[in-house]
Amino acid sequence: MSSAIPTPAQRTAWLQRAAALDRPLRAQVFAPTALVQPVEDASAWQGWRMQRCGDPGELPGLRLASGEAVHLDLGEHRVGQIELELASAGKPPDSPLRLRLRLSELPGEAAEADQPYTGVLSHAWYQDEVVTIDELPCTLRFPRRLAGRWLSLVVVAAGVGWDAVVRAVRFHAVTSATHQLPPPPTGLTPPQAEIDRVCLRTLRDCMQTVFEDGPKRDRRLWTGDLRLQLLANGVSFKSTALAERSLCLLAAFTRASDGAFPACCFERPEPHAAADIIADYCLALPAILRELLRQGGDRELVRGLAPLARHQIALALAWLGDDGVVVPPAGWWTFIDWKEGLDRQAPLHGVLCWALDAWLGLASTLGLDAGDDAATLARLRTAGHTAFCRTQPPSWAAAAWLVLGGVVTGAEARRLLLAVLDDPASVRPGGPYLMHHAVHALYLVGERDRAMTLIEAYWGGMVERGADVFWEIYDPDEPRRSPYGDFRMNSACHAWSCTPSWFLRDPAAASRAS
Amino acid sequence: MSSAIPTPAQRTAWLQRAAALDRPLRAQVFAPTALVQPVEDASAWQGWRMQRCGDPGELPGLRLASGEAVHLDLGEHRVGQIELELASAGKPPDSPLRLRLRLSELPGEAAEADQPYTGVLSHAWYQDEVVTIDELPCTLRFPRRLAGRWLSLVVVAAGVGWDAVVRAVRFHAVTSATHQLPPPPTGLTPPQAEIDRVCLRTLRDCMQTVFEDGPKRDRRLWTGDLRLQLLANGVSFKSTALAERSLCLLAAFTRASDGAFPACCFERPEPHAAADIIADYCLALPAILRELLRQGGDRELVRGLAPLARHQIALALAWLGDDGVVVPPAGWWTFIDWKEGLDRQAPLHGVLCWALDAWLGLASTLGLDAGDDAATLARLRTAGHTAFCRTQPPSWAAAAWLVLGGVVTGAEARRLLLAVLDDPASVRPGGPYLMHHAVHALYLVGERDRAMTLIEAYWGGMVERGADVFWEIYDPDEPRRSPYGDFRMNSACHAWSCTPSWFLRDPAAASRAS
């Protein structure tokens, strides 16, 4: 087993390959499209909406006294740097100017910026900065890369007898995709076309020098997000280079002790390992490689990674209990969904079967010897069926993954999946990551219309609630839900929510499990 | 009269001259000398003292969790930029690091940084900044130029499972003087030598690309400070270039409507006018020119400015009342001292006489025709004597300036000055600027010992209270006094407090009024 753990030389080679694939981002400058004002509105998402209150033509020369603010609409969600041209009006400035800059993804984030923080993640994630400017007039390009749509400028302190003046606001947006989104394919209804646009905007803003999970938070390469981004990438921006770079970075930080594929890694200042390992993310590697190959990715690179993919399955096979089904490993994080108390055993068993199936497909494409893996998969499916499919699975997670893993198939799969989805007592998805798999499972059982209804209800529901990028967390009944203890910490532009474009643009692909 | 108002061509020439005199600053890097902690102490200045709590050797590797802080002693007051080398300990950082940086001139400023602000000036003056750092480890050179001795680093937010680590702290100090202070002259007592050192440290830190009033606040060239700095400069750093540059900048912004010499001007981003005109600062110009010439300043430059100096006197002569004494002009600011309710008539009359005397000396040195200015001065002195010296003047301000202006002379001057200084009912100085003139007046009347006693009591009092630079505001009975409504807004390193070095190093010069 240990022979699949990458050697230092392999890691170095992957890092070198990643560095060689690090292309300059595309930069484009955008101006605000409107002056806006957050308005409290119980019917709006999270209780706030932005109301247009002025044309961008009113911005040059706008005078702001101490304590005054202006909120600007960038037109759509963007990632990049804020640049301001500032001056003063009144007496010559006798002191520095202190200015608060805030870029918000959602109106509630902008409106409730001053509320106490209640979350568990570092509130350094807040895109809320105070700068002191010694000289006016000046052009200030704020150095941090920020992500969002709503730009707030608050004059914390001007001086005695003078106010701040905003002469110009520019946003230097960056992406490794294209700023202009690919047009929707023909044949979509207007709501579907809008869902597609929002998906690709989300993907665009997450495509930086790696596939990031969210450009506001965590700004990081995660294996689970990468897999879903890759699907949407294949039907839109088609950047195999970015996928290869992301994959090489992750592979370089495979855990040395046991060869577990990392759940994420850090790019900067130098690529380095994160501590996180997620059981179901490890098992995503075979499907990632298979998809990359399908998109024209480098065959030798994929071949070099194939043993590592098989190794993830080997690790998981060690978790089987006496009944031949997986026991979620102690000391590992099994993600599946943001849902407290979810029973993750059946879903993880489905994931393992799905991974083995992807591996068999990959091995076949590459002409690799898969040994008796097909027999192993058959045994796993049988054991899983015995353990989990004799009665109705308790959750969408279990049903979707048992279908995706081929543990239940054909008419039985369709019946079981629909029964779970129709049962109000079933544990529903906590977020878009699992919702994607539920939709995918519907495609697999031939329920395309039902799948589309689910996409239009869930992702279309976000659009109805004002989303111009798709959210990390979305529960229509609980607008302020956050796994982090504070809704402002949620990422509004989140990679794992971008997959409806895949279903809309390549429904045939969605009829394959991997 | 209007012929003395500078033409556009003259202004341009002065600005060009100022630009040509803009020399690179001297930079030197310093490391903190101690870890300290603010300790509340009713007997300490403003209620706080810094207590040493660690060696600088403890700094590299110091770990700070969210909410933790470290306070560092830079060893002495410095002006420049903070550079930090930061890293993390624990899990790899999963979020940005938010750090608060504060540079304080005095312990109370550091200790009470979180108290509500009660002042009238912009609190953007606070040297208290929050930065968000996306990548660790990093080297952060904070871009603002700051001034102070006590550096506080507060971790506002690290992340989940990791802390910030301080690897190194460097302070890039700048001055156009020399970082090393000239040694005290021989013959001083240890307290006098210490006062001299603190004076020159103050002057050094105010000598940047102009003579600044205070490097924390206002960071600006003021005519009144310039005059006093020039005196101390002549016995220490001897930078005529900086004096000439400062003078040219001010002259270029002479008020166009009436030729009033500006109280201050701004250097950056391009030199520009301030709105302030101060009657007694206008009248400082003759003495500034005379002193500059004495220090070897450019004779042609001074000659070119001489008509402007005479013009300030012409402006003031228009303020005379029927009794031949000045009436402080309505719509002008007459400063004299930071002291509310001070009767400024007698002091301003003294200032005018002193200015005329300086002008006569200047004209004589330059071989200029002074017309009947000597007769005018004689008339002014007589009128002033009649109006203000028949009874005991009510304030130190009046007594000092009547002596400096030669309105009262000889034994009468000595008697009158001492009577005012000894009378507890006299209005005492509000700050060092006027205290300087009281000391100077004592020298003029031959009371050198009394002058030295006053220096040792007042400036020595600041030293006893922990000053390593001399303060803008010092009233031993009212430690939290501030003309700006908040003691933290006071400038602790203030040019107008640096003159004891002049008295200590060149007592003969102090026996001349200008």
Give a short overview.
The structure is a homodimer of 514-residue chains. Chain A is an alpha+beta fold.
What can you see in these coordinates?
2 copies of one chain form a homodimer. By secondary structure, chain A is α+β, with helices and mostly antiparallel strands. The first copy, chain A, folds into 2 domains: 2-24 and 189-511, Alpha/alpha barrel (Glycosyltransferase), CATH 1.50.10; 26-175, Jelly Rolls, CATH 2.60.120.260. Chain A is built from 15 helices and 13 strands. In chain A, the strands form 2 sheets. In chain A, strands 1, 2, 3, 4, 5, 6, 7, 8, 9 and 10 form a 10-stranded antiparallel β-sheet that branches. The first copy, chain A, has a 3-stranded antiparallel β-sheet with strand order 11-12-13. Chains A and B meet through β7 and β13 of A and β7 and β13 of B.
Percentage of residues in DSSP E strands of chain A = 15-25%
Compute the number of structural domains of chain A: 2
- If helices are DSSP runs of H or I spanning 4 or more residues, what is the number of helices of chain A? 15
Biggest interface and residues each? A-B, 41 and 41 residues
Return the string of H and E elements of chain A.
Answer: HEEEEEEHEEEEHEHHEEHHHHHHHHHH
**Quick check: average pLDDT of chain A?**
97
